[in-house]
Amino acid sequence: MSVILGKPEVPHHWLLDANVLFSEWTRWLMVALAEHRQATLYWTPHIENECYRNLIRLGRLHAEDADLERKNLPDRLRAVLLAQNHEPYLADVRQVDEKDRHVAASALALRHQLQQAVGLVTWNLKDFPRKPLLKLGLVRMCPDELCVELLNNKKDILACLEHSVKLMQRGLATHPIQNPTAYQSKAMPLPQNDADWIQFLGRNRMHKTAKICSRPN
Asked: How far apart are CA 14 and CA 42, in angstroms?
């Protein structure tokens, strides 16, 4: 007989996968949501390395800017850079895709350290099976699910989205890009109104959030 697991409460500690850190705006959305939930953000050097390696490889960030940004990122996002101590927990997360197993094992290491549930925030939901992780005390979510779980009405979501933009703009003003890439030079402007947000959210895989924002006032 299969065990039916209920809908878990959103934890107060979130380990971010590299694909969540990859986007400048998504980083600040995580900060805004963490403020709302009074949660703490975490990642590991392995996760950070993967993020910046891909940002440089895909031409999203100049290597010199990547080096500067990495030094300050945990402080800027009010996050904790964990020690890389995931290996003892790899055997416990065998059902996770092999290339992502270190992420789940790191979340499990944090779970044991804190002795409470940990959120694993990733865009690759298919690589992190929900039920096996939930049995280990890990609640895996994507940013879109996290947003609608914490803010289930249009007014609160738009307020949080606008706050994320203010945080992002403040962060970029404090640590400006020194060597803009072609990608950064062609970046589209940030949303200015509700219609802009609906399109922006759709482009950024935030489809459930966009659906709520498209409702009449």
From this structure: 6
